[in-house]
Amino acid sequence: MSESHAGARRLNVSLVAADRKVWQGTADMVIARTTEGDAGVMPGHQPILSILAPSVVTLRGTEEGLVEAVVSGGFLSVARDDVSILAESVLLPSEIDVQAARDLAAAAREAEAAAGDDQEAREQAEADMRFAEAQLRAAGDASVGAGAGH
Amino acid sequence: MAGQLRVYRRRIASVKATKQITRAQELIATARIVKAQQKVAASTPYAEEITRAVSAVASRSNASHALTTEREPQPGARPKAAVVVITSDRGFAGGYNSNVLREAEQLMQLLREQGKEPVRYVVGRKGVSYNAFRDRPMAGTWVGFSDNPAYTDARTVADEVIEAFLDDNGIDEIHLVSTRFISMLSQQPTTVRILPLVYEETSEPPAGGVFPLYEFEPSPERVLDELLPHYVRARIYNAMLQSAASEHAARRRAMKSATDNASDLIDNLTRLANAARQADITQEISEIVGGANALADANVGSD
User: Fold this and answer.
1) Partner residue opposite B222 with nearest CB, options A21, A51, A80
2) Which end of chain A is more exposed for a tag (fewer CB within 10 A), N or C?
3) Could you state, in order of their start, the residue ranges of all structural domains in chain B?
């Protein structure tokens, strides 16, 4: 895939978690889900700074081919073909602990049920749920979608 | 006289035991500094990126935001300023804790002079007991992770402070007092105001070049809303990691000088013990010789 783009402009992408740099390299395209909807970023994109939803971020055309990572939310910043994805937690598929993700989903479901009218707690529970679901999806777990609350 | 020697020997044994302990502490601290430094380095990219993003929104958007503008004090009420102090859980670290606590006291004095009311948030058992002993109120205390803080620890602390900040009757400023790790030999207690943001008038371009004309999605205000808690957490996390590295460095230095002192003491005591033993022997010999001479004199007299 990358040969066809030899010489073309590429994106410098870094995936940064709160306590480490998870991935750095070049890619042809970055697909991320912002709070406004899915966004695809290609070289020459206008500078943006947007809020990410807990989701799977996809990088196309890197040296390793397709790279996926799960983010717990955070930010997408694009400037001069430099793309930074910042999140408190960024996980590559190999780092996902399926059991931990299932536990998180279960805990989030309970928290959502217990939240009642507490808007903040409800939002937190939903964010946790989406993060857990994104992890399970990226890890290729079959039980995805069970109890999806949105 | 033999009693003297026994006293010296007992003291040597006790100093040796102390030396073993301080030596072990020194080695442990040395091993942990490296790890703590690596954690500081690993957290730096995130802190830098978040800071850059915050600066970009704050400088470009003209967004008048609760988190970036100083609040008008309510009539009749003194503005409150949160002071987050990061200390260690354990002692044996020389002046580490007293330095950072002194820095905090100075800051609070300054705030009082400005007519503000300081509110304490204390991290680390040493800081908590320092304030508890003096019967000073603390709005929040956290202990148990000072030597190896995780991001979730920083989050717990930051979220409580942010909540108080966003509350209308809560605090108006957030100050952070921690120890900056400069090198193995030098650590500096520092004070920063995290919120409201401190604007610096400068003609120099920010690190990493001038900010491009970002488009903020969904809106600058929303992005700032979302960014600032992350910013506070990242700042507190970074301060905790630096303080942890400083704590280990301070402990290593304190334990090294304690070990050196113990070695000197052992040398001196050994010398004294040797002298005491020599004195014992000399006295014993002179007693024997004296006794023999006396006997010989007595025999000469009887002949």
Assistant:
1) A51
2) C
3) 21-200+228-256
